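Problem: given the chain below (293 residues), write out its structure.
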Amino acid sequence: MADALTGQARVSSMGDLRKLPIEQLINDVQARLGTGFDESTMVRKRRTIGVRSDRSTWVRIEARPLDKAASQGQINNGIEASGLLDGIAKPRWHQAVSWLDELTGVIWRADECALITGPTAKPIGYPLTEPELSSDWWRTLNRSLDSLARQRVTRVATPDTEPITQALVTEAIEQAFPDQVDTTITDQRWVPAHADLNWSNLTAPDCWILDWEDLGLAPRGLDAATLWVASLLVPALADKVFRARCADLDTRSGKLMALFCCSKDLNDPQFDSAPAFEPTARHAAELVADLRR
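Solution.
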C-alpha cells in the first residue's frame, strides 16, 4: 500500500486516528492478515485501532511516526516481545505485520492476539467507584506481576511512548517539585514492566492484562505506582493496590516511581481542573516528604 490514509497530510500533522478516514487502512490490514473484521467491535483511539477478526482474535493496529520510532531507538514492539513471557495472565500473541508508509512517514503495525471477551475493569480514565474484584483477581494480578519481574527482556519500557530513563524521571519530578528530592534511582536492578498498567488495561471479573506495546525494563515499582496513582480518586481501591504491591511501593525506587507518575499528571496544565488533582497533589507532597528522610 503506497498510502494508508489516501489524501491525508503527512504524519507530523496527521493527529488523531479517530478523526481520519480509515477504510483503505482497514482493507489493507485485512488483506495482509488474511482475515475479515467485525467492524461493529472496532475501538478507535488517537494512535491505535482495535477490532475483532473473523477468526475470533483481536487485531490492534498502531500508527507510529518514523521520527518517534527513531527517537525510541528500538523498532521491535512490546506486544511481540510479550509473546516470550510466561506465567502471566495476558492474551497470547499470534502474529504481526508491519510496513513503512513513506508518503506519510508512518510505521504501521497490526498485531493479532487471542481475543479476551471480558470487559475492562474501568474504561479510559480514573475510576470513580471501586470495581468488584475478587480475592482470586488480586492473586492473579500479583502472580502475574511477580512473574513478570523475573522474566528476561531487552526492550526499554516506554510509558506514554517515551523510553524511561533516569533523565526522564528527573525531568518530570523536577518540573513538579524543583530542588526538593534526590531523584537518583539507586537500585540499579531494573525489571521488566508492562509500563501502562491502568484500569482500562485490566479486565474483570477475570483478571487479564491487556495492551503490552510498552513492555520493557524499568525501575522497580513502575507498574505498581502507575496503578496506584490511577486509583487515588477511590481511597479504598488505592489502599488495596498499595497492600497488594507494597513490596514494590515501599522501596525507594517504588516511591520515586509513584512520585514520577504523580508528577506527570501534575505537570499537565489541564490536570488542575481534573477530579484527581487534589488527591494526586496531596499524595505527591507526602511522597516528597518521605523521600527527604
